[in-house]
Amino acid sequence: MRFLKRWLSHSVRLALALLFAVIAMQAPAFTHDYATALLQVSADARRDVDQRETAARQYYALPTGGDDASLIRALQAHEPANAETLAHSVDRVSSLQSARLHIEGSMAIFQPIVALADAAHDPGSYKAAIWRTALQTYVIHLDLTVTAIIYGAVGLLLGSLLGHLLCLPFELERRRV
């Protein structure tokens, strides 16, 4: 019976260690997919903003050129509600672009952490839908990059620690007997 308990205990430790390693190795690949999704969504949103700006300039005979803020101020005099939604769209585009640049601008080893922190800090709720969609459409695969291997090693250690913690009550019980 002790043999089976030890075997089961070691199996649980090994399974958790491997599970955590495989999950942790997904972080760099998922981060890349998330950054790509941010790029795609921000590019689509920017095209939408550009089309709306062109339409507003033509309809209200606003001056061409200038930045988004000057157009929004000029549009405010003619149609405040449209100016407000345009400002909201411009803010969304800038938030998504800065998030992607922040992720891609950090070192590869820290990109998953930066992406997670950036997605958690989302005051405009612009990135939550992108994060959820990226999670739902993500296909598990193993990249053998240095970053993925480092994350895998950390996951292996954390999974092993969790396995030992879960099996600790059984070890203590065996020592008392």
Question: How many helices in DSSP terms?
Answer: 6
Rounded to the nearest angstrom, the radius of gyration is 25 Å
- The fraction of residues assigned to DSSP E strands is under 5%
Q: Which residue ranges are poorly predicted, with pLDDT under 50 across at least 5 consecutive positions?
A: none
Number of strands: 0
Shape label = elongated
- Measured as a percent range, the helix fraction is over 70%
Cα distance spanning the termini: 13 Å
Major beta sheet, specifics?
A: none
Structural class: mainly alpha
What is the average per-residue confidence, as pLDDT, rounded to a whole number? 91
Order of helices and strands: HHHHHH
Structure, explained:
Helices cover 83% and strands 0% of the residues. The protein has helices at residues 2-60, 68-78, 80-105, 111-120, 128-137, 146-176. Helix 1 (2-60) packs across helix 5, helix 2 (68-78) packs antiparallel against helix 3 (80-105) and helix 3 (80-105) packs antiparallel against helix 4. The mean pLDDT is 91.
Observed structural traits:
mainly alpha; 0% strand; 177 residues; 6 helices
How is the secondary structure organized here?
Elements: H1 2-60, H2 68-78, H3 80-105, H4 111-120, H5 128-137, H6 146-176
A few lines on this structure:
83% of the residues lie in helices and 0% in strands.
